[in-house]
């Protein structure tokens, strides 16, 4: 059993070609593959894709990513594996994405238990910067997603995110609006994008409109663009279009799937459902 992935050679040994042409990874019994969910501008064009990992065990059983990437302390027995799987996921996400990147952005999730360290290393590590250049993915097209309410060390998190922006990356606050989200942390982080959690969308649809209006106002105050997550039907999409929201994401607009399925041969691009 591999204890921890450290070198480029360690990572390369875990990579395999998948049946659909995508790159997959195998590590300590985990089988990882990439799927991508599109993020749309108001004009229905694609801004970019959120990269998501799908994981199976050796028997082919699907594992819940939320459980696999749950908050762990460094002293936890599973912590080392979790960090390696998290890094491997980003490796295959970037390589699979590179073939179709063009002008699109890629949104990468950062593991809550090590987000500060991951952001610091990812944004400043020369090897990663060189690798992005090799893949022809501009740093300005890489968005690092952070769940701000899962971090107690606000000052260190703020420093890490500011350093990332200084190094050419973008920062998105993920799941804003769930329990624990705080305006002060958002102001400290000064993100490029604020992702509004689906719970605020549902509250708006059900008649409680103040929370999403406050979130949008906060985003404007820190000069962040607004992305609403979890749009699942036309009613929700139309309601969000009526607000000052820049970007849209959800099952109604595009399901998570292989990047190749969004860019089949001889297809120019992707658009929102025609009924939207």
TrEMBL record:
Database matches in Pfam families: EAL (PF00563)
Sequence ranges assigned to domain EAL in this UniProt record: 16-270
Highest taxon above the source species: Bacteria
Coiled coil start-end: none
CDD domains listed in its UniProt record: EAL (cd01948)
SUPFAM superfamilies per record: EAL domain-like
Protein's name according to its UniProt entry: EAL domain-containing protein
Organism lineage string: Bacteria, Pseudomonadati, Pseudomonadota, Gammaproteobacteria, Vibrionales
């Amino acid at each position: 059993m591999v204890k921890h992935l450290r070198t480029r050679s360690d990572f390369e040994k875990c990579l395999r070609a998948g049946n659909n042409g995508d790159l997959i990874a195998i590590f300590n019994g985990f089988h990882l593959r990439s799927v991508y969910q599109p993020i749309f501008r108001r004009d229905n064009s694609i801004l970019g894709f959120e990269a998501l990992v799908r994981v199976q065990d050796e028997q082919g059983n699907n594992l819940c990513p939320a459980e696999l990437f749950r908050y762990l302390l460094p002293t936890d027995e599973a912590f080392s594996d979790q960090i390696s799987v998290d890094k491997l996921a980003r490796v295959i996400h970037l390589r699979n994405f590179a073939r179709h990147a063009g002008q699109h952005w890629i949104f990468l999730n950062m593991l809550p238990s090590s987000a500060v360290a991951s952001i610091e290393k990812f944004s400043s590590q020369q090897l990663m910067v060189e690798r992005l250049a090799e893949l022809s993915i501009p740093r300005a097209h890489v968005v690092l997603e952070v769940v701000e309410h899962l971090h107690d060390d606000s000052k260190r998190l703020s420093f890490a995110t500011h350093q990332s922006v200084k190094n050419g990356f973008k920062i998105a606050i993920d799941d804003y609006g769930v329990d624990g989200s705080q305006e002060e942390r958002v102001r400290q982080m000064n993100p490029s994008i604020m992702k509004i959690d689906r719970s605020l969308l549902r509250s708006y649809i059900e008649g409680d409109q103040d929370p999403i209006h406050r979130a949008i106002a906060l985003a404007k105050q820190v000069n962040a663009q607004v992305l609403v997550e979890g749009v699942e039907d036309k009613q929700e999409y139309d309601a969000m279009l009526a607000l000052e929201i820049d970007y849209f994401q959800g099952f109604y607009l595009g399901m998570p799937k292989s990047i190749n399925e969004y860019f089949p041969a001889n297809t120019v691009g992707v658009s929102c459902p025609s009924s939207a």
